[in-house]
Model the fold of this input.
Amino acid sequence: MLPRRVDAVVIGSGPNGLVSAVELADAGWDVLVLEGAETFGGAVRSTSEGGWVSDRFSSNYPLGLASPVFKAMELEKFGLKWAHAPLPLAHLLDPESSVAIHPDPNDTAASISREHPQDGDAWLELYSKYVRIREPLLQSLLTSWPPVLPGARLARRLGSAGELVRFARFMAMPVHRMAHELFDGPGGRALLAGNALHADAPLTGSVSGTMGWLLAMLAQDIGFPVAEGGSSSLSTALRRRAERAGALFVAGTPVAGIELAGGRAVAVQTASGERIAVGRAVIGDVSAGTLYDRLLPEASIPAGLRGDLKQFEWDYPTVKLNYRLSAPIPWNSDDARRAGVVHLGGTADDLVHISADLDTGRLPSAPFMLIGQTTKSDPTRSPEGTEAVWAYAHLPRGVVDDASAEKLGDRMDRHIERYAPGFANVVQDRDLQRPGDFIKSNASLGLGALGGGTAQLHQQLIFRPTIGLGSARTFVQGLYLGSSAIHPGPGVHGACGHLAARTALRDASVLGPVTRAFPTFALRHLQR
Done:
């Protein structure tokens, strides 16, 4: 039996929903988490069968390990263990050459500077500058919106006004331009470009440099870890933390709608017809489309918001292959044989062409591939002597049909074979996840996209998910969007759930009528 009334309902149990549940329950609220699927975790889930563990969606979590939000929850006390490969990342420039990020920055510099000695010094300087601003930067990105206090600390750490303006220019640059300003040779440029393609920003587009730089620096700083035992270990730790605080979890219970009265969210209705009254807040760890198109009454959506939602842009559709291998991949590259993550895609210039293909509707003949060799990071992922490996690539934006996914999957197989002759001989089993498969597994992964919407500048900050204030607030009092559809967007870091819970707690406080008055007025004015 579901409770008849609670302080808050969290819809969805992805990492953001779990963080919201923890923080609301920590504040003494009565919290109910409703998950439509039969298992918790959203897109942070793994399966286990016969000694093989497969991460079904996300897998490597540099932002998770670095996140101030997760750190504050002390998830290691609830069973979470991080696991690392000998090398965080190898990038294959061609079948015979590669560059790698090593645990020691000096070894990374040596890898980058094989043909261009000055590039090694450039890498060390780049990393040193990152370390100097790391703490206020991550606080600014992941703990508050707008980031007034951490932003002020970041500005002080940067020093002069000139350095602040230079940093703003640096963050705005396309990764292709950034890479050419920083490095003369292909190694450093490829590391930045490959990491930028973890997101969906064109490599010649503004702020793609930020994405490539931040992930490269995280790889150097803390690696590309996996959760020991499978990605569900991270979700389970978050759920245990929330349950200790008093949150109640119910799976297999889809929410069919949110009931409004007087401009406020007052209850949720489940698909089975049960009604749960809500005293303080509803937080949706769902896509923007799910919240506004399916859960709210159509007549309640302001005309401006309805029009803006028609322009909402998803990130690239994903095609993922999950392999069970009888032996490690026989890479030509020594770096790739030791790396937890392998980028397969060529030079930075090659990646620009692949990025252009994805934005112009062409299926890349040699796709950029992100490959996770999870057994190298965590030996519990497969039987001794074998390897559990996943690989994903992207379809062009908006292309989601099964035939295109199958064709891309075949190209992915051949692409690995080119860089690792004999790969086909070690494949015991191959499981293809197409965009339609992702959608069936998780309704929030619209068009098979894993990022909650494009990470390009036109759909970030105050433009995420549409024109607004960039916060978790909606035009409905007591209703908050707490998924990667809001700032700061994609990645397993918990920040979106944290911001939603923080906003809900502030709005329900004694000062709530004051703190929410202007944002609510502004949202309704912008979206009418």
User: Anything to note?
Assistant: Residues 172 and 207 are 4 Å apart (CA to CA). The longest strand covers residues 275-284. The chain has a mean pLDDT of 96. The two ends are 39 Å apart (CA to CA).
